[in-house]
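Batch manifest, entry 17 of 40.
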Amino acid sequence: MNPKPLVLLVGMLAVVGARLPAQQRPAPAGGGQPPNFANVEVHVLPVQGNVYMLVGAGGNVTLQIGEDGVLLVDTSVAEMSDKIVAAIRKLTDKPIRYIINTHAHPDHVGGNQIIGRQGITIAGGGNTGFVSDIGVGAAILAHENVLNQMSAPTGRQAAYPSAAWPTDTFFTKRKDLFFNGEAIEILHQPNAHTDGDVFVFFRRSDVVSAGDIFGTETFPVIDHMRNGSINGIIDALNRLLDITIPKDKQEGGTYVIPGHGRLTDEADVLEYRDMLTIIRDRVQDMVKKGMTLEQVKAAKPTLDYDARYGATSGFWTTEMFIQAVYDDLRKKS
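Output type: structure tokens
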């Protein structure tokens, strides 16, 4: 791939991110007002190999295109579904075969129903020597905890309509898929942002879709309602660093598509991991000293990172992040 178009597109992506501040994103923790979706465009960024990054109003969408069809990682918010499909159709007329969900939040699975029903499930292959289309609707893959969060026990109202639920789940540490001539690893990261998080690693293209375990706009959301934890996020970032390999002068190499924000590489993940480790250790020390939550907030353990990741209003503020870290570590201690 020619590096010059990539540089130009990364610059464009930074502008897009500036248009959509973090506090406007739909999110589980939240009270932020969503943007006017009618005015939001979907921008397509070629990453490398046959992987693209789609940027709009919700979570980032990862797109893989090849002879076998289209694979998506996450589907953003429901309101962006038609625009996402239109962006795909500008690139290819191949059918949408797979959707992989990195977790169950609405800004990442909101388009499952609308986008998924426009796809076609593929059957056969492997040792059968037979491949065919078996019905309307793309296959939706996710960890079983995502299905548990999107569905509901009999007699209760589910969080999402059944057409949006995963159609294929797994409960192991990883699930493998071979599609468009490329090995794809779906790697479960327990109790990180939520308890259903996965990384999606496109091995030939050398691209990882990280979901909301990693972002470039805010401190990470720790969803305690879905068993998220600060230590789980740090553990997951360490695993992501094990996967990523930098190119010359620590730039490029393995690219990482975050849940929100600009395209990144290993150096960005390393900086984010180090930042969270420092904040975690600071709060841990305060917890050991018996400090209250208000005392910890007053001590400003995130101060040197607030200019980049902090927020005083919106769906996920700096104070909410500090409280989530404090609650985690106090419970552990």
